[in-house]
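Justification of resources, computational component.

The compute hours requested in this renewal are based largely on the per-chain cost of generating structure records like the one below. Each record pairs the submitted sequence with a full structure-token output. That output is archived, and it is also reused by downstream analysis tasks.
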Amino acid sequence: MKIDKISTGLDWLLQRLPRASLWTFRIAAVLLAIGMIHIAAAAMIDGYTARVLEQYARAEAERSILALPLGHILGSAGVIMLWLWVPMILTRLFLGLRARLWRRAGQ
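The structure output for this chain reads:
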């Protein structure tokens, strides 16, 4: 009886994990792309570089993360989302292996 409950719970989780994982990856990819565009623009466009440096100076003077350039904040959020996506994939692999072992043990 307990093995059936565990299998049902794992099936429910394995059905929903791929969708959540896919959306997490998509959001992380978009945020990282925005961050990379910000870095490229700051390196190539002189006017944008001056503006970004002013924003960094203001953020340091105010000691506020929110005063940082928007591209920097979004790129950092993308990195955090990517780090959240990796454990989701590892969890899915672990639960799939565990479910396979439970099925073998039940046979």
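The chain has one domain: 2-106. Residues 2-106 form one domain.
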